[in-house]
Protein: Permease
Organism: Metabacillus sediminilitoris
Amino acid sequence: MNSTILKQSKELIGLALVVIFIYLFIFLDYNTLQKEITIPKEWLNVNTIFLSIVIEAIPFILLGVFVSSLIQIFVSEETLKKYIPKNPIVAVLPAALLGAIFPVCECAIVPVVRRLIKKGMPLHVAFVFLACAPILNPVVAASTYFAFKSNTSILIGRMGLAFVLSMAIGLVLYIFFKNSNQLKVTSEELVGKQQTSSTQMLNVNRLKATLYHASDEFFDMGKYLIIGALIASLFQTFLDRNVLLSMGSNEFTSPLVMMGFAFILSLCSEADAFVASSFGSTFAPGALLAFLVYGPMLDLKNTIMLFAYFRLKFVFSFILVATAVVYIGVIIYQSFVL
């Protein structure tokens, strides 16, 4: 009864917001409003950053949910089990290779990984794919090359570290969580949903089923994208970056600073290399690598989505493991290679 009332209340609130938006769009005189109300520059900046993040991310979210829907409709559990090695340690290697063959932007990776886990992919294998796919990408490699033409070790380091560290993250997650179900949806519900989908497939064309599933998942994911983009835009506007830049001179603290920057800025992996290159005169190459490897694995946008669909303890553990592995990997790389 309470859940029904809550659902109806959400629908009424959503409908009211749509009506208000349409009314303001049609009848509000924006020129008069701008004269009467002075909006601080900081909040205009928040608006600009928020819109840029959302507009940049929406195409990739659409791609992600469409791929997720294709997996749901066309890929069976038996197919996944057939191609994934039974040995959990060996299984991380094809997952990393899959990330290179089938790259997905970090904006779109969460729905794909969620669907793969629902289809039977082991938890740690799916998160190897989540960690490396947004980086092991021809477009990302090209943008990194053009941004760092004078220092190709950044390109080699980014691709190499992403490949190796993603497997290390997966192995650590396996040690702590094995192949336990960390999705917020119970296994019984998953079985029920899969049975329903199979039944519907008898009556609904597969293409229609894919489109229906993609639209449902897009609106489900969209709200978390908006929340993450808003938080990221607030951080980018109001965070005092001079405090962080003052820590950038130390070779041990600067990678952590740049990892924090990458998390807050929530840049798309196809474009973050050009932002990283702008810090070249302030931060050492190791810190720039930390920015380029950590950001696509974890940022505010996909963290909000992870919290929405995975258990709280697991998400915090993944954040801790990914942060520690990337930091240690970058420190070792800059000590012996750079």
About this structure: The CA atoms of residues 46 and 237 lie 6 Å apart.
